[in-house]
Design brief:
There is one protein chain. With 438 residues, the protein is α/β, with parallel strands linked by helices. The protein has 14 helices and 16 strands. It folds into two domains: 175 residues, Aspartate Aminotransferase, domain 1, CATH 3.90.1150.10; 259 residues, 3-Layer(aba) Sandwich (Aspartate Aminotransferase, domain 2). It is 39% helix and 17% strand. The strands form four sheets. Strands 4-12-11-10-7-5-6 form a seven-stranded mixed β-sheet, with helices on both faces. The protein is globular, with a radius of gyration of 22 Å. The chain binds pyridoxal-5'-phosphate (PLP). Pyridoxal-5'-phosphate (PLP) binds next to α6.
């Protein structure tokens, strides 16, 4: 059936071929893109709410919030006005020796809502840099204290970003293969299940004393395949890990800002992290910004008359005022009661859809956490390289929906402003697609 549809899809893509597409193909190197086989990129000229519009006026429901960032949808005028105002007041200033209102206010507001005893906010540029900073904080914490703990503990199937430190603490995979020899050694353990929890606890007891920090994506491992695991088991593991003196680093780059149904996935846990990484939804998907939050205990380990104990890390755009202003506006919208209700509502609709998915044997492991719905299609080998992903993306685009499965893992992670009708369209497409694989 997919082969039959190809001519129509080719026609659609041919029709989309514009001078912008041609110009793009000559000069742009896209992320995660095999340029030899990729179809021409779609020229997007506008975004409003959940919809992206191409140059022919066709609209696409952004069913994955543009790589999980656009939590309030596109073209939000409230955030846009705050960005404009900030850009005309102070667009950028070096962040050592200077400070500014948006950076301080954002830090104050984040500290007041983050689950944990965090007391400091370190700004960087994106999720990967937020993770780099976290790893450096954890390793240098022990070095500043004169203790030899230099290994990192992480979960299998984790994804923490594409820079070298972030790749090192991520699962060795297709993404990291050419670089594996250059990545530092990490102790990897499985995510906890009722069957393996005691084994994991004993690994932690054995390895714990040499470990500086443990990095984890709480409740949902995103790029690793939207793998979901239980808060209670994670709590058990965190208690043992923290008991060994290991610093706990919660990577909430994807799960933060409402994604899991609560503001942060850490709210489902009793155990509090020592370091937290945030990005993606932080600015409502409008600007690049990363945050690494740290506790006072951590911060104090860097206070010294000896300048060598300084955290020597920074980026040209650290705490960019426009990005901070965008984040403040995004937080306003996020915390509105009507928005929190939308988040809960999306979660309920996902739960209801899961019951429907149970009817199809081709659907494996259907699951949902908050606004994230995911399942595997039983079609070929599991994993990122499975051709189901690109095929569903094409089919969905032809129906005015943007989905980007991770191999045969199909997921739906909408902006919170998605309408009922738009949700229906996506669910309807998912059923159509499941039927075609049945
Ligand atoms: C959990 C997690 N950490 C870190 C990153 C890296 O973020 P960025 O793409 O902004 O570098 C991602 C990106 O998907 C992520 O999901």
């Amino acid at each position: 059936m997919h082969a039959d549809r190809r001519p129509i899809i080719n026609l659609i893509f041919a029709a989309m071929s514009t001078s912008l597409t041609e110009r793009d193909r000559k000069v742009i190197w896209h992320p995660y893109t095999q340029h030899k086989t990729i179809l021409p990129p779609i020229p997007v000229v506008k975004g409003k709410g959940t919809l992206l519009y191409d140059d022919k006026g066709r609209s696409y429901i952004d069913a994955i919030s543009s790589w999980w960032v656009s939590i309030h949808g596109h073209g939000n005028s409230y955030i846009a006005e705050r960005i404009y105002k900030q850009a005309t007041e102070l667009e950028q200033v070096i962040f050592t020796g200077f400070t500014h209102e948006p950076a301080v206010e954002l830090a104050e507001r984040l500290l007041s809502i983050l689950p944990g005893d965090f007391s400091r906010i370190f700004y960087s540029d994106n999720g990967s840099t937020a993770v780099e900073v976290a790893i450096k904080m954890a390793i240098q914490y022990w070095s500043n204290k004169g203790e030899k703990r230099n290994r990192i503990l992480a979960f299998h199937d984790s994804y923490h970003g594409d820079t070298f430190g972030a790749m090192s603490v991520s699962e060795r995979s297709l993404f990291t293969a050419p670089f594996n020899d250059y990545l530092f050694e990490v102790v990897f353990i499985d995510t906890p299940t009722p069957d393996n929890i005691y084994e994991l606890l004993s690994i932690v007891r054995k390895e714990g004393p040499s470990i500086a920090g443990f990095i984890y994506e709480p409740l949902v491992q995103g790029a690793g395949g939207m793998r979901m695991y239980e808060a209670g088991l994670l709590d058990q593991l965190l208690a043992e890990i923290a008991g060994q003196g290991v610093l706990c680093i919660a990577d909430e780059v994807m799960t933060g800002f409402g994604r899991t149904g609560r503001l942060f996935a850490g709210e489902y846990l009793r155990h509090r992290a020592d370091i937290m990484c945030l990005s993606k939804g932080l600015t409502g998907g409008t600007m690049a910004l990363g945050v690494t939050a740290a506790t006072q205990r951590l911060f104090e380990a860097f206070l010294s008359d000896d300048r060598r104990k300084t955290l020597f890390h920074g980026h040209s755009f650290t705490a960019n005022p426009i990005a901070c202003a965008a984040s403040l506006a995004s937080l306003d919208l996020l915390l509105e009661e009507s928005n929190l209700q939308r988040i809960r509502h999306i979660g309920l609709r996902h739960e209801a859809f899961l019951e429907k998915l149970a009817l199809y044997p081709v659907v494996k492991n259907a699951r949902a956490t908050g606004t994230i719905l995911a399942f595997e299609l039983d079609a070929g080998e599991d994993g990122y390289i499975n051709a189901v992903g690109p095929s569903i993306t094409k089919e969905a685009l032809a129906r005015g929906i943007y989905l980007r499965p991770l191999g045969n893992t199909v997921y739906f992670m909408p902006p919170y402003c998605i309408t009922e009708n738009e949700m229906d369209q996506v669910y309807h497409f998912l059923v159509h697609s499941i039927v075609s694989y049945s």
